[in-house]
Amino acid sequence: MFNFRFENIWSSYLRPSFVSLGILVAGLMAVGVSGFFLKPILSAAVFVPFAYFAYKYLSKNFGAGTGSGKNINHLRGAAMVGGAELDNLVIARYGKRQTGDLHIAGIRIPREFETRGFMFAGAPGTGKSVAITSMLDIIYQRGDAAFIADRSGIYAARYYNPQRDIILNPIDARAHEWSPLAEMRSEYDSETIAKSIIPDAPGDAAEWNHYAQTILAGILLHAWRAGLNNSAITRLAQRADMAELKEILADHAGIGLLQNEKMFGSIRGILATYTIGLARLLPQAGRDGFSLSAWVHEQPAAFAFFPYLSDQMKPMRGIIAALADVYADAVLTLPPDANRRLWLVLDEFASLGRVDSMENFLTNARKHGGCSILGMQALSQVHSLYGRDNATSMLSSISTRLTLRAPDAETAEYLSRGLGDKQVVRTMRSGSRSSSKQGGSNTESWNQQIATERLVLPAEIMRTPDLVGYLQIAGDLPVGHIRLSLPPQRPDAAHAFTPRAAAPTPTPEPAPAPELTPTPDATPENENPLDGLEL
């Protein structure tokens, strides 16, 4: 039925009429001016475009001629604007001082939202790295601290300064000598570090991962007490037999898991899987090595890079996840400070392995100055790694999101729901015209329909061009339809990756010759055995 509320009458009828009338008046004024100087034919040429645009505007809102027309007006729910308009709304709402210097696609981000998390979702090549780089350019200039998992070393090449920054990939020649033993300050830390290396697992694997954590915690505690190094940890975790482990875990809770050889075989399999990266650590590093948590507590104006190449992903993903977990835990132990900024930057984070403290960091790091930038490709990867419920809780903690082209229908559906629904009213006209000998007649009717629909359909997200996306900023601001710009080109600051020279394999010393024991028939010491031999 027709709704006689003034706002509906204004938006559906009066406003289109006034706009169209204004277009026609402008056209007539243009004709008057042109007619004074130009010939009538040129005056008509000036008026025709104005009349055309007036016709199109009326057709859009009312329909034209016989048939039907409709006018769609937004009532409530999610709304979309262009990038420039969204930036103006941010400034109007928060002011230039509070918006700070961080921006995405030219849209300024209020400083209070920096600690609420950023997620860039999209298929490879859609613009996630472009958006991350535009943010890191500013973060680096500020002097904020950051831990960056750096696929292909693109960020190390752009920013790395050996006088200020650190490299953590142990097979990079520039790397610091990190050891899990250096993160321990007391015996109780062995359990925390063990969970960083062997994270909790979803589903049925949770119990077995816990067993492996217990054994590894005992190994770390023994190595820390005895002043051992990375090489010893690797050997004990991967190759030591049950008898040796029973000896070093005699006073540890892990001793109870070493009573059944078949059970220990299953635990050893998990230990070997998660500690494969430990074999890449510098073997001599131990409790006196580099400590990432101590570096965080020093609050440096620096970046910690873990640059890695594609073929290093499988052996290194556990170490990357462990270091990210150590970093996140260290930030959470800092005193609260609203002005501090320490960034956790993980592009394609679901491919890096599970970071055990990720959910806790996303939920609670805000008051400590912790900020996160996560890149996500497919939702199924996150569900597989963290479990559906934990993944849902974790992702819901992130307030600012950039939605780029999705690689699959499940991810597109999730992102579409995240962009929200809108409620619209459609004012529709239907009419007919007839003629007869007695004359013609026109009939028309109007009705309004209220509908709820997606702001952006999943199919639209799957067809979005590269570098084009939808930006959601925390709060009640509308969604911005944006286009990313490539970051400015500049000379590389460093090599993306510098391989460490392989340590030379020591040449084994020759075994000593066995001593000969004289026999009773042996030749006397001073007698030549060749004497008397005829040649």
From TrEMBL:
It comes from Thiomonas intermedia (strain K12) (Thiobacillus intermedius). The chain crosses the membrane at residues 12-31. GO terms for molecular function: DNA binding. InterPro entries: P-loop_NTPase (IPR027417), T4SS-coupling_protein (IPR051539), T4SS_TraD_DNA-bd (IPR019476). The lineage of its organism: Bacteria, Pseudomonadati, Pseudomonadota, Betaproteobacteria, Burkholderiales. It is found in: Cell membrane. It comes from the Bacteria. Residues 423-447, 485-535 are annotated as: Disordered. Residues 429-441, 494-504 have a biased composition (Low complexity). Its main location: membrane. Residues 102-484 form the Type IV secretion system coupling protein TraD DNA-binding domain. Residues 505-517 have a biased composition (Pro residues). Keywords: Cell membrane, DNA-binding, Membrane, Transmembrane, Transmembrane helix. This is Type IV secretion-system, TraD, DNA-binding domain protein. The keyword Lipoprotein does not apply. One of its GO terms (cellular component) is plasma membrane. It is a multi-pass membrane protein.
